[in-house]
Amino acid sequence: MNQDSMTEKQNIRVLMIGPDRSVHGGISGVVNNLYDAGLDKKVDLTYIGTMREGNKFLKLAVAAKAYLEFSGKLKDTDIVHVNVASDNSFVRKSVFVKKAKKQGKKILIHQHGGEWKDYYNGLSDKAKENVKSVFGMADKFLVLSPYYKDFFEEMTGIRDIMVFPDTIKIHGAPERGYGQKKILFLGRLCEQKGVGELIDAACEIKKDHPDLTLYLAGIWEDEGLKSKAEDNPDLIKIEGWLDEEEKRKLIRDCDIFALPSYFEGQSVSILEAMDGGMCVVASDIGGIPMMVMDNETGILVKPKDKDSLKEGLLKVIDDTELEKRLAENGEKLVREEFDINGSVERLTEIYREMSDEK
Fold first, then answer.
1. Using CA atoms, how far apart are residues 97 and 139, in angstroms rounded to an integer?
2. What would the 3-class secondary structure string for 176-219 be?
3. Using one digit for the tens of pLDDT, what is the confidence trace for 129-184?
4. Are 327 and 182 in contact (CB under 8 A)?
5. In the prediction, which pLDDT does 6 show?
6. How many CB atoms lie within 10 A of CB 348?
7. Euclidean distance between CA atoms 299 and 277, whole angstroms
């Protein structure tokens, strides 16, 4: 490391919080990607996990321990980077934000997750004011997509919110074939991700395409859907949670990626599928249209609509040339606009700007 890099790292001390880096998917995956891309080599980065998977007593113990560690490190910190989603994530992180504000620290709030609208609209007036107050403590506010920029600007009245999409390490598409009729889903296996509609649509498609296979990879959160999947062994292959190597292998082996979510902040899994040369069929919600432009880089379908999903899947199943074109366009988009190396440079610059502000 040269002297300039050492000086830069020593001068920008960042204390980042979010779920433990061992937590499956979501924010922890984004944080791990930033580490893999060398963010900790650019700045003096300390990460504290405020949540781990387990029962409520474990979660409470982890949060309490994290708060004590956080409080002890604040004095030697320039910038507090808060990765926050809705619901319990917001409630938990708000305590840390208020502590950092009292200590006069620069605060960067980094929005994740796709359930903010329903969460916020379901709050009491008092709780809504608390959300606005906590977010108003931010010196910089990052959101995943233009959709959420508009939403949070309207909610909070903040006018300088910055779009900062999730990005990935680019591997490049392998040599692959199309027209395989192998559909892949990666993520939380639950109703909100549209898994029920996906199973139903795939069952109907298989009647005319008997060689169709649907791969479901992730952690089950709905036993009813799991039973439904298990009832269709000729169609559905249940893969469980995959490590990085297993995930990339399945992306290479399948040609269509489906994500019919009811809501979505963005989706790292879509980026990974596009990078792997898959054709994406996904819901027209949240930050997804920033990646999936209908009939250009993929197919957009209506959420909670089995018929729309079926129609979208059949478009590419029945037209291999279309499938290939959309996949190639998607891979090009990810390579040019969603490379994590660019995000690390941009985030480092944001930190620098914040540290220079008096």
1. 11
2. CCCCCCEEEEECCECHHHCHHHHHHHHHHHHCCCCCCEEEEECC
3. 999 999 999 999 999 999 999 999 999 888 889 999 999 999 988 888 899 999 99
4. no
5. 43
6. 19
7. 14
Three-state DSSP state, 24: coil
Residue 314 CA, distance from chain mean position: 27
| Residues contacting 223, CB < 8 A, separation 6+ | none
Which domains does the chain possess?
3-167+339-356 (3.40.50.2000), 182-337 (3.40.50.2000)
The one-letter code for the residue type at 10 is Q
**Structure-block tokens of residue 113:** 């997750």
Place of tokens 């944001």: 350
Sign of CA pseudo-dihedral 315, 316, 321, 327: positive
pTM: 0.89
Q: Coil, strand, or helix at residue 20?
A: coil
Residue 3's pLDDT band (cuts 50, 70, 90): very low
Report d(CA 16, CA 79) in Å as an integer.
8
- Tell me 1's DSSP state: -
Cβ count within 10 A of residue 4: 8
Q: What is the DSSP string of 115-134?
A: -HHHHHHTS-HHHHHHHHHH
For residue 280, report the phi and psi dihedrals to the nearest 5 degrees.
-105, 135
Q: Give per-residue burial for 236-272: e unless 16+ CB within 10 Å, then b.
A: beebeeeeeeebbebbeebbbbbbbbbbbbbbbbbbb
4, amino acid identity: D
Between the two ends of the chain, the Cα-to-Cα distance in Å is 29
